[in-house]
Amino acid sequence: MRPAMFLDLPTLAAFTAAVLVIAITPGPDMAFFVGRAVSQGRAAGLAAVAGATTGILVHTTLVALGLSALIAAAPTAYLVVKIAGALYLAWLAIQTLRQGSTLAVERSSEASLAATWASGVAINLLNPKIVLFFLTFLPQFVSPTDPHPARSLLTLGLLFIFIASFVTVPMVLAADRFAATLRARPSIARAIDWMLASVFLAFAATILLGRR
Question: Which site from 55, 92, 110, 148 is most exposed, i.e. has the minimal number of CB atoms within 10 Å?
Answer without folding.
Answer: 110
